[in-house]
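Hey, I was hoping to borrow your eyes for a little while. I've been puzzling over a protein and I'd love to understand its fold better. The fold is given in discrete form, as structure tokens running alongside the sequence. I'd be grateful if you could look everything over and explain what you see. No rush at all, and the record is pasted right below.
>
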Amino acid sequence: MPKSLGDSLNTVEELNQYLSTLISDMQLVERMEHGKIKMKEHITDLRLTMQVLGDIYNLQMQQKQLYFNVDTAKLEDSLVICDEARLSRVLMNLINNAYDYTPAGGGVMVTLQQKGPRYHQRKTEHGRLAFKTYADYEFRVHDTGKGMDAKEAAEAMAPFDGERTTKELLEKGRGLHIVRNIVQMMNGQLQVVTTPGQGTEVILSLTLPLAPK
């Protein structure tokens, strides 16, 4: 098979896979916007969640010859109440992007740190005044890949508009719009720090209630 034909078939296959995921994501976003998706919160061990993510990606990173590290050294309170499945999806999406756009010899670093000590906050729930203990957390996914300029970063965060080319679909950060929607549902913040040729760092900030002891 001619090389050009083989490359074309690979591109078509990649695009088909992307579009299949895209359709699923668009349906999920629509359900979110109509309030049909609810957070399923339960006691979650953040340190264990990060360890599992590390185990999932270790071999994949090694096969691509990427340095990979998951760091939770600055995590004090690991037991929280959150939707672990949604949080894991967000982190896996970010790690997938970092993996996809980092060439062999580069690195992907994932860190979770607690920003300051725990604190008490008064909230009204179901008409009753309640006191809960919270902590602020910061997840960072940093890669040494090709990075993006400001315009590309904005486009990667935007929902699919039906006007992008095949090349753009394959080269932009995949699924960051779905990440943004999930993060908003979790009352969190998402920041993308990126420079062409110098890699990308995505910072996810969340305030989570601590699990009762």
